[in-house]
Amino acid sequence: MARIATVGDGDMDVYNNLGTSYPGGNAVNVGVHLFRLGVETAFVGAVGDDEYGRRVIEKLAAEGLDTSHIQVLHGETAVSEVEFVDNERVFGDYHDGVMLDFKLSPADIDFLCTYDLVHSAMWGMVHDDLHLIRERGVPVSFDFADKLEDNPVTEVAIENCDYAIFSYTEDDTYIRDYLRRMHARGPKVALATLGGNGSVAFDGERFVTCGIVPVEVVDTMGAGDSYIAGFITGIARGLSLEESMRLGAETASETITYMGAW
Q1: Under 8 Å CB-to-CB from 239, ≥6 apart: which residues?
Q2: Averaged over 3-32, what is the pLDDT?
Q3: Which of 107, 115, 151, 188 has the fewest Cβ atoms within 10 angstroms?
Q4: Whole-number Å distance between alpha carbons of 243 and 192
Q5: How far apart, in whole angstroms, are the C-alpha atoms of residue 224 and residue 230?
Q6: Whole-prediction pTM value?
Q7: pLDDT of residue 259
Q8: Mean pLDDT score across all residues of the chain
Q9: Helices in the chain by DSSP H: which ranges?
Q10: What is the spatial distance between Cα 113 and Cα 110, in angstroms, rounded to a whole number?
């Protein structure tokens, strides 16, 4: 069985106009979808000692993830404010909460390095430590979201990941040139998810494209995170780049048929 750990942001997605909330954050969302795909999964991150933090831990444990390395810090769990408009999520303010104090310990690094692959993302606060994981021979995937240019986290993380995943809008000259440039800085694969336009990846020799799986959209929250889960599951299982991208698309298509990221 493939084993993948996710590390970084865990928050509460609060839908202000619906009066409801769900645990979220890239590392949390990817972790849950990994487990649902049959991957042995752990989440390493930080939550506050508040009601939201308790809910995050309880929900992840109920899903089956290893929660033994979640840090419970004094303060508030991170919150992402969301509005739901025409089946699309519109992000509002993000409140970092205790994530501002999150730091991996040597024991956390040791724990993460027992896994086949480690995934993190832009808001995970661990970009400076990724090299400690890769130096021990563990592949790293990283979600850069739409922070393509002039971002200090991007500048650090691109040098220390094997699978670089970006978010863009369409398969055009700009994104292909960008993926070439990013691939030249170290990753094995540089990939961009393109929303309804599918995804495109560059492996140093060729571009590979993948379309979407059409479904009736209920809520797009978590589509990108579930794509990543499918994609890195394929990679961890030794599937081809094309097969891994297809598994990403299939996983995302299921996610957008219900409310919330999972």
Answers
A1: 247
A2: 91
A3: 107
A4: 16
A5: 10
A6: 0.92
A7: 60
A8: 93
A9: 26-36, 51-63, 106-112, 130-134, 152-157, 173-183, 223-236, 241-255
A10: 5
